[in-house]
Amino acid sequence: MKPLLLAAALALPASAFACPGKGTTANDSTEAAADADATRCAKKAELVGTACSYSTGMMAQRVQADGEEVSLTSKLEMADGTLPSKVAAPFMAKGGYHVIANEVIELVPDPTKAHAYTGKTLEVDGVKYLLVTGFEPPNS
Fold this sequence. Notes:
By secondary structure, the chain is an alpha+beta fold. It has 4 helices and 6 strands.
């Protein structure tokens, strides 16, 4: 009887680490964005391009520390060219914001659709940067 109790006691905590199901909910991307670090450069090569991941991370930290809170609803459009700062900003948001390629923006399922974005903005050397810290998917 003792070996059976011991086996059950050892197996019970392991069940807490079981993988969740593969089904997704509407809040999955929003919850993942809450866990993502807005001050870290995106890992997807298509978002970073030829820009510098170190410069991108440093600018994200600067905007986080010194920027002003902002909320906006916008579609993201592909930005033309690279910035002289070498910061990865693959998208433009309405208002002329260069969207910093970070872990949060990586999670936006379809940037071509309007999302409600929250974050911080800072103008540096004539460039308006937007650091996205959260987003809500478009209403269906």
